[in-house]
Amino acid sequence: MTEEAATVAHIDLALVDECLERFFTVSSARAQAFGRPSEELWRVLRKASMGGKRFRPRMVLTSYTALGGQDVHAASHVAAAYELLHTALVVHDDVIDRDWSRRGRPNVAGSFRDNATTGGLPLPTAEHRGTSAAVIAGDLALAAAPRFIEASGVTGDRRSRLLDLFDDAVFASAAGEMADVDLALGVMPTVAEVLQMERAKTSVYSFEAPLQSGAVLAGAPEPVVASLGAFGREIGIAYQIVDDLLGVFGNEGSTGKTAIGDLREGKRTMLIAYAATTDCWPDLAPYLGDPDLTEERAAGLRALLVECGARDAALDHIREHTALARAELAGLPYELGARLEGLVTELVERVR
C-alpha cells in the first residue's frame, strides 16, 4: 500500500470510529428515559465495541478506496455497519460458548454477572442476569447495524445491493454458528465439515461481504465484485485455519490468546478433525476437553498433533486456499490487487 493510500485508510478508519461514537452517544441518551438498567446495557455494549482492530471496516475501505471511491461519509457508514455486526456476533458467541471474559477482561455477560454478584445476588441468579443482558445487548447491536447502511446516503440499486450483501452475511453467520453448536455435540466432524462451518460463521461477514460491499459502493463492475467474493472466501478459510493453529501452537504474548484454551475446551477445529482420522487419536482423545489440562500435558498433545500430521495438513490447507485467493487477484485492478496481496501476506505470516 502506498503512503498516500495508507493515510487515506487511516483517516477513514477514524471516521468509522466517529460513526460508532455518535451512535452510542445518541443511544445512551435515549436509554436515560428507561432507567439505570438500560443505561448500563448501553454503557457495557459501547465498551465491548471498543479497542478492536476494525478488521471488517478495513476490508470495506480497502476495496472502496482502491477502486477509486471518494465518498468518505458513505464508506465510513457502510464500514461501521460491519463493525457493529461483529460486535453483535461476538457478544452472542460468548453466550453460546458460556464464556464470561474476552481477552482476559469481563465480556458483556461477565460484566453484568459480576455486578450482580457484587450486589449480593447468588451466582446462578447473577449468571442468568449476565447471559440475559448479553443476549439483549447483542440483539440491539444486530438490529442497529444495517441502519448505518441506510444512513450512508446511498440510494437506488446500490443501496439494495449493499443491504442484500449485509443480510446474506448475517444469514450465513447464523447458519455457521448453528453448525458449530451441532458439530460440538455429535460425532467428530470431517475436515471439510469444519471448514464449511468456519467459512459460513466467520469468512462471509469478515471478508467476502465487506470486500464486495466496498466494491459495490465504488460502482465496480460485477466481475470485480464476484472476484472479490471468491478471494474473500479463500483467504477467509485460510485465515480461520491460521487462527486454529495459533490457538494451539501460538505464542500468547504475540496473539493475545492462550495456547491451551482450545485444547481444554476440546474445540473441534480442522487440526482435531484431522487427528481423529489417525492412529494418534486414542492417545489424544482422553485429554481433549479436560478443563484441568496442565501445560505439561498440553505440550504432549501438541507433539502428538505434529506427529500425526495434523499440523502439516493444516499448513497444506493454508497454502492451498492462499493460492486460490491469489489466483483471483489477476482479474482485479492493479492497485486493489496490490493491497490485497499485502493483506494475504499479513494474514498468512501470523502462523510463521
From TrEMBL:
<keyword id="KW-0479">Metal-binding</keyword>
<dbReference type="InterPro" id="IPR033749">
    <property type="entry name" value="Polyprenyl_synt_CS"/>
</dbReference>
<dbReference type="InterPro" id="IPR008949">
    <property type="entry name" value="Isoprenoid_synthase_dom_sf"/>
</dbReference>
<protein>
    <submittedName>
        <fullName>Geranylgeranyl diphosphate synthase type II</fullName>
        <ecNumber>2.5.1.1</ecNumber>
        <ecNumber>2.5.1.10</ecNumber>
        <ecNumber>2.5.1.29</ecNumber>
    </submittedName>
</protein>
<keyword id="KW-0460">Magnesium</keyword>
<keyword id="KW-0808">Transferase</keyword>
<dbReference type="GO" id="GO:0004337">
    <property type="term" value="F:(2E,6E)-farnesyl diphosphate synthase activity"/>
</dbReference>
<dbReference type="GO" id="GO:0004311">
    <property type="term" value="F:geranylgeranyl diphosphate synthase activity"/>
</dbReference>
<comment type="similarity">
    <text>Belongs to the FPP/GGPP synthase family.</text>
</comment>
<dbReference type="Pfam" id="PF00348">
    <property type="entry name" value="polyprenyl_synt"/>
</dbReference>
<dbReference type="InterPro" id="IPR000092">
    <property type="entry name" value="Polyprenyl_synt"/>
</dbReference>
<dbReference type="GO" id="GO:0004161">
    <property type="term" value="F:dimethylallyltranstransferase activity"/>
</dbReference>
